User: Fold these one by one.
Assistant:
Number 1:
Amino acid sequence: MPQQTASLLECLAEALESTAFVSLMPVEGEVSAPSSTLVATIPLGAAGRIHLAAPAALGALIATNILSLEPGAPEAMLRARDAMKEILNMTAGAYSSTLDPIPEMGLPEISTLDDAPSWESWVGRMSAEVVLADEHVVAIAFEGRS
Amino acid sequence: MSFNILIVDDSETTRALIRRSIQIAQLPVGELFEAGNGAVALQQLKGRQVDLILADLHMPEMNGVELAKAVLGDPATKSIPVAIVSAEPSATRIAALRQAGVKGYLRKPFTPESLNNLVRPFLEGNHAAANRQPA
């Protein structure tokens, strides 16, 4: 795994574990592509962008854990997008500190992938690293500006 | 004595996380007000007693720096300390915040303990201690 990717994963793991008590695990064998995916994207000035893709269920889990909601609480799904953006924001802040010069962070935004083939295509196009977060499949990628 | 805090962050999740961290840290806070950006925060300040503003740096419409400048530039609010809670990693930009009058900085992700370390000096009237928060 390239050092850049390892660093990005480390930052994501720190944000997830310290804020939402969610642990990252490597993928062993085949994993099913999610049928519906949230993609959070944050610009890092001239350096590029970071993308974080995961099913909305992971966003809901993050919101549940951050806010101490009851498992399955409807409020968790309502906050899934916001929770994903905030985890990406924290990840990007930590990752940016490893870049020279440290880029200006922008505001995170959310888009969606509507089926499994779109996920497969996106992961390939972005050369994203795929891991598991409490059994939810997650992909993260740094898209540098050439 | 009541000590009221205005939490300013475009992320509702983060505002809730700060509220929860304040509860866990058992900070003796009276009322917690919330705003989704700096412009809304300025509206919230009207007619309310606010003793500390905890603001994100990167927000739509009016960011944390613009909010701090507006608060410090208004005679009615200039005595209210502003502390930034942000994922911003640049030490240079954090130093610039302090030069602009920001009284403290806490980096996300944070723990209830680190939030306590940021906020408690303001409760005790010792702003200089909050300025020593690690970047």
Number 2:
Amino acid sequence: VNGLHLSAADGKHLRISGIDPLLALCLQELPAILELRDQPEAQARLLPSPTAGDETANRDWRETVAPELRHLFASAGEIVSRDLTQLKPSPRDARFRTLTIPLAHVPAWMSALNQARLILAAIHGLDEIDMNVAYDQLDPRKAPAVLRVDVLGMLLEHFVRREL
Amino acid sequence: MLKAMTAPAQPGVIRIEQTRPNEALDAPWNVVVLNDPINLMSYVTMVFQRVFGFPRAKAEHHMLEVHHKGRSVVWSGGREQAELYVHQLHSYQLLAQLEKPS
């Protein structure tokens, strides 16, 4: 992931180069991870209540706002899944992959990467401690999920840095 | 709130009716962002800049408050606007809630 680089390909596209095999694997898994958004743990995290105890407000939110947000998240996932079909071997080094996406898709990418991280964390019950210990000290059942959260986070960090 | 009304049965007499403001509507509401071990610090900063138009330093201040104290009040005001902000923060997948100040 160290050689990862995002650059404007022209005025309308963004080229993501230096995608190593691990990141490529995580990206190929991304659509399947996003499909888990309706599992109860993931749904609770992606569509939280707007108040701590106002049940009327929370119910109204679930009926009106939550479906809209769910649609927004699903749309971002669909955009990213389509873009990922363009993941290609790098012309300079076949071990790496390159992906060119429309600049207009950047918000969808940030949303989808963040969704995937949150979904994995919710389903695998990752907490603050899991996210801050060395991989070899992690519960082996959680380690693969933490690794994916971290790898997808590195790509998200590159997107965010371009925006800040 | 004072509201002046003309009493039709008594021409020329001004009746002053005192009404209480609707506290639920008028009292300020807080928009609170809660800590989450997964969201990147840089991502949270970016969201605060986008949603509230905070300068970078103020956005980072609130992000660090969330990170270290577990929560940060990022905005206070009318309920309708507060709900809109919570909606926007949820669209960025931040944990945000409306809160009535105690």
